[in-house]
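Weekly modeling sync, notes
Attendees: S.R. (lead), two postdocs, one rotation student

Agenda item 3: backlog of single-chain predictions. S.R. asked that every request posted to the team notebook include the full sequence so nobody has to chase files. The rotation student volunteered to paste the first one in as an example of the format we agreed on. Action items at the bottom.

Example entry:
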Amino acid sequence: MVKIILLFILLSTSNIFGQFSFESFLSESFTYTLSSIKSNLADKKIEEKEVMNYKAVMYYDWLDPISIKVGYLFSSEGTQKGKIIANAKKKEEDAVKLFSAAKNFLTKKYGNEFSENSMRGMTFINWKGVEDFSIVLTHKGDKTMVTVLKN
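Predicted structure, as returned to the notebook:
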């Protein structure tokens, strides 16, 4: 009996702490600064790089069964301008799974009022006027990305 209880505790704890959530990510406000996000992510290995003319602070997480990269975008002044989610591994299967999961979630949350275009093998889906930001879902081959930018 004790083994069953320990197994249950172990499994429930890993689900609470080990899983990325679209809902919590999208509900985060745009109040981070470069230093506050680094402090918030102190327990994670982070990468800093340039993405779309912004300074990005990124870390890895899981959206079971997909390894994802989660990032926060900052202006040169250090104010938060956006956030992104992308598949971490350059695998078409992961990209397709993330695209499908993201489209389903975003459609349920923000509705069917979006524009969808394809150009040179890349699909763009754009939810405009969602509160104070724009949401763009892109997919091409082995890469899918959700970009949320503050208007």
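Discussion: group reviewed the output briefly. The chain is about 30% helix and 40% strand.
Action items: rotation student to repeat for the remaining queue; S.R. to check formatting next week.
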